[in-house]
Amino acid sequence: MENLKTYAGQSLEGNFYAIGLNYKKADAHIRGNFSISENAKEEILLQAKTDGIPSLTVISTCNRTELYGFAQHPYQIIKLLCEHTNGTIEDFEKVAYIYKNHQAVAHLFNVGTGLDSQILGDFEIISQLRRAFRESKKHDIINPFMERLANAVIQASKRIKNETGISSGATSVSFAAVQYIMARVPNISEKNLLLFGTGKIGRNTCENLIKHTKNNHITLINRTKEKAEKVAGKFNLIVKDYADIQSEIAQTDVLIVATGAQQPTISKELLYLKRPLLILDLSIPKNVSDDVLENEMVTLVHMDQLSAVTDQTLEQRSAQLPLAKKIIAEIEKEFNQWADNRKFAPTIKALKNKLAEIKAAEIDNQRKKIADFNEVQAEILSDRLIQKITTHFANHLKGEEGSAESIELIRRVFQLETA
After folding, report:
1. One MF term in GO for this entry (predicted)?
2. Which residues make up each annotated binding site for substrate?
3. Are the CB atoms for 298 and 273 separated by under 8 Å?
């Protein structure tokens, strides 16, 4: 799969690339600069079509931003990312990774199965990948290669979830936040807790707070009050108006921010404190301004500091890695064989057609020359020879690491048309 310019008889522009950055080298600030809003995702896909990129998928989570697609050069995709975020080419080069063809495929398998997640075995990423590929399909910017690859990764994720214990034990950003609070705040069941933001992370955090802290003093605030009321209704919690956030912060002991905005939603101007306040920011980009630390009563913790959760759980998950990798290797191998075979399928098909033309002309010639010519037997014998010849060529191409030269030689020798 070193060069995928031909695929299923179609012309594919360039190679398959995975470009991006994640929590391993990019801190929360840098990841925030490269965070892609829903509108920006759509704009990237639309511009990619205009730029002639045949297939592209975009994912942006709190831990990573990645683009997968076909291009003549990875810079075409990197440029799209930087034009639609606050990130720069210079920043990207410092922390990013670029994978090509087989390596890009391997990377997507690791990402989609939770093996590359900040918390090993976190399967939330697969639903985000599903949505990303659906968006690409909706905008008609996904080719058969990437569509099949997406299905293969989803299959691997399902098998790992069902056949291994790599997702066993409670461990996630929201769980880690609750563990952090319980370890550092004495008498947590009696403290006032305020959760600002009731998106997915907010809801998960809320569930973990109720389950593990046994606290009845949890207040929810969301810019859209109806969303907070919907979450509160499940757990019989208090909901306050967004306009009351300043007074609510003044009364709370722990503030958890999971608002998912592009700019800080909490700053020092909102803080009129009479007691110590622990703030946990679970948002990317950061939604709590660093200026809150000017208030001596504030302790601020960002999600990156919460990744070291429950060593025992992570040890249990790590023990399942060999089995998970074995499943990935099996499905990845099947996909790569399919992809590699599709490279030369048009050539083999054209060769078979060419040999069929030669056969038809020769049988017609022999029919005219020989009075009792057995055309049926000639057809059977010729078809078997054609099948054997094309099978030999196919096996030769399958067995070669770099078969582009062999494909070109076959095309020239037999004067094949494979457009």
Report:
1. glutamyl-tRNA reductase activity
2. 61-64, 117, 122-124, 128
3. yes
Q: So what's the pLDDT on residue 403?
A: 61
Give the model's pLDDT for residue 168: 56
The residue behind tokens 């050069």 is: 73
Position 311 scores a pLDDT of: 53
- Out of 53, 59, 62, 126, pick the active-site residue: 62
pLDDT the model gives residue 167 = 66
Burial of 274 per CB tally in 10 Å (0-12, 13-18, 19+)? exposed
Binding-site residues sit at: 61-64, 117, 122-124, 128, 197-202
Which pLDDT score is estimated for 201? 83
For residues 153 and 160, the answer to whether their CB atoms sit within 8 Å is: no
pLDDT under 50: residue ranges of the chain: 1-12, 170, 402
- Global model pTM greater than 0.70: no
**pLDDT score, position 104:** 97
Instruction: Report d(CA 395, CA 410) in Å as an integer.
Output: 13
Is 82 known to be catalytic? no
